[in-house]
Amino acid sequence: MKYQAIKLVRRPVGDITSDIFERVELETPALKDGEFLVRQTHMSLDPAMRTWLQDNEDSYIEPVRPGDIMRAYGIGDVVESRNPAYPEGARVVGVTGWAEYTLGGEDMQVVDRSVDIGALMSVLYVPGLTAYVGLIKVGRPVSGETMVVTGAAGSVGSLVGQMGKAEGLRVIGVAGSEEKCRWLEEELGFDKALNYKDPDLGEQLAAATPDGIDLYFENTGGPIQKLAFDRMNRLGRMVVCGNIAEYNNDVPTPGPSWVDINLKALRVEGFVITDHYDKAEESTLAMMGYLQKGQIKFRSHVLTGLDSAIEGVQLLFSGQNQGKLYVEL
Amino acid sequence: MKYQAIKLVRRPVGDITSDIFERVELETPALKDGEFLVRQTHMSLDPAMRTWLQDNEDSYIEPVRPGDIMRAYGIGDVVESRNPAYPEGARVVGVTGWAEYTLGGEDMQVVDRSVDIGALMSVLYVPGLTAYVGLIKVGRPVSGETMVVTGAAGSVGSLVGQMGKAEGLRVIGVAGSEEKCRWLEEELGFDKALNYKDPDLGEQLAAATPDGIDLYFENTGGPIQKLAFDRMNRLGRMVVCGNIAEYNNDVPTPGPSWVDINLKALRVEGFVITDHYDKAEESTLAMMGYLQKGQIKFRSHVLTGLDSAIEGVQLLFSGQNQGKLYVEL
Questions:
Q1: Which residues of A, range 43-62, sit inside 8 Å of B by Cβ?
Q2: How far apart are the first and last CA of chain A?
Q3: B223 CB near a chain A CB, below 8 Å?
Q4: Matching CATH topology for A2-114+299-328 and A126-274?
Q5: What's the gap in Å between the CA of A297 and the closest CA on chain B?
Q6: Residue B295: which H helix or E strand, with range?
Q7: Start and end of every Enoyl reductase (ER) domain (chains A, B) (predicted)?
Q8: E-assigned strand segments in chain B
Q9: Angle subtended by helix axes B280-292 and B155-166, to nearest 10
Q10: 3-state SS, residue B79
Q11: What is the secondary structure of A230-276 as a DSSP string?
Q12: Residue B250: what pLDDT?
């Protein structure tokens, strides 16, 4: 059976552009014992993709190399199987690729077909595990604290902010448009949302955090990082989940001096979810709990057709996606 | 009874200079119930003193203000007491000041008179608690890992490196002279010592850490910070104990970009011992254990007379002290 897939043909220089990808036609393989074939139905587009394209062998995950099919997380149906753990007709989630079909792997998880696809993509799967590990395990929030989250209207940031409210924090979101800020304040219940493009961001941040900042959740990088750093309280935690503003820079912007990390006893800690797959079940239960109590709302930005990924992934870096970005195949 | 003390008269601009201090004569007070009078016998000089002099109300400890007696940690004898927990003749350690006498506080600890003063000052008290908390509690070393420690010939760094060896680490020390490097390698058993003044420090560090760095213990700041950062392994820890190279700068040098903190899942964590006094007993036991097994050697740099502190404290910032610096009164 023939199917469409998208390969990386060269690494990006600066921004991701369409010409680094190429559409190819492939044929599904004959299955060996233990293998199964997945027809992908929904494919997630995530900021981490930019880091997968870098020629960085030190990174947490193997880079996608020119000639490889572009990597993705996705949802699909098992259409043929020689593995009893993944029977024909099962719905699975896991690492797929920019392709209509993919050979399933043992790291795929079977999920219940009754779960809403939007909730699965936007709350329970990649963004949910990321938000759960980052906020709860790394950030260790304490009720009454003040949290600032950047990329607050993004797939992870919007969850982190709402979970923070559910955990009793005062939550300030930082986003890139007035529309996003309104959504955060009026729909998601953030205490305050700031537009990082406003020239007086520093003054606005100071006014919004009169008691300083205890927990900073970094999704973006950019000038807000230093502004927030300077307002951190003693024993504060800074969770480094992403730095999307830096991914297209060849020479990343320096971070704040470490003097205050010492004097204020701060903890600046990064994480990547590939180290935390063992917490997937715990995370799903926690996220289902927030959903059932009505503590989490989400919005999805859905594209259609495999090809839409090529231009679509760029929305993540221009900040034009509204909600969790994914492709329906 | 009259006694000598040294006051801060103005904050330093850049380096500490003698003219920011002034000698004064004071009179010991009459004791109220619960009070006790301590004649200081040994006074510790520590790099942290530079940060106490800064006009930084956000710091972990109240700044010393012009007009105040300069703060110190010290050892002394109770010479008069109206507090049964601190009887006359007891030896105590705690926060004293640059003064021959001081009113004791409830935060002082009585210590056994049989303990060697050099060991108490150099291994068991301030540097020991700092090294113990920083390496064991914050750094969480795992046998077989590679550690780089800066300020390695200093009071804290020399303990951290030797404790690292005792815990099964490969230990690379960074210090500021050939003599110090020889001492680290030949006397203290460091696997390698590097002189940060060598122009090819980066190449030397790379050669000394062929498997990368798992644990970085920062006492100094300076260019070594970024060189080490770039060699950190995934899930590495960077313990920020001090930044002595930065204390005399008005505008501290920026730190490394946070992109790799995310991609390598690094933890950069600062600490100050005032948050960890509750671990003093645990720390003393652990440090006594290392001493008894012959795993820790120390050297003390002893000055004489209260006045010697004024010039003596500057040795810490020029790197000219050889071992733990303290004053015998």
A1: 51, 56, 58-60
A2: 17
A3: no
A4: no
A5: 27
A6: none
A7: 14-327
A8: 2-8, 21-27, 36-44, 73-81, 91-95, 101-103, 109-111, 146-150, 170-175, 192-195, 213-218, 232-240, 267-270, 300-304, 324-328
A9: 70
A10: strand
A11: TTEEEEEEEEE---GGGTT-SSPPPB--SHHHHHTT-EEEE--GGG-
A12: 76
Which of B235, B241, B257 has the CB atom closest to A255's CB atom?
Answer: B257
CA distance B290 to B126: 16
Give the nearest chain A residue to B272 (CA atoms).
A265
How many Å apart are CA A12 and CA B248, to the nearest integer?
42
Q: Does A277 touch chain B (CB under 8 A)?
A: no
* Residues B259 and A252 sit within 8 Å (Cβ to Cβ): yes
For chain A, the domains span 2-114+299-328, 126-274
Q: B240 is written with which tokens?
A: 């920020």
Q: Say if CB B196 and CB B189 are below 8 A apart.
A: no
Beta carbon pairs, A and B, within 8 Å: 132
| Fold designation for B2-114+299-328 | Quinone Oxidoreductase; Chain A, domain 1 (3.90.180)
Hey, is the C-beta of A279 within 8 angstroms of any chain B C-beta?
no
Chunked into runs of 10 residues, chain B (329 residues) has average pLDDT values of 96 90 96 96 93 82 94 96 96 96 91 92 93 98 98 95 98 96 97 97 98 97 97 98 84 92 97 92 94 94 96 91 92
Q: Tell me: the pLDDT tens digits for A38-94?
A: 999 999 999 889 889 988 777 788 899 999 999 999 999 999 999 999 999 999 999
End-to-end CA distance of chain B: 17
Q: Return the DSSP state at A220.
A: S
For the domain spanning A126-274, the CATH number is 3.40.50.720
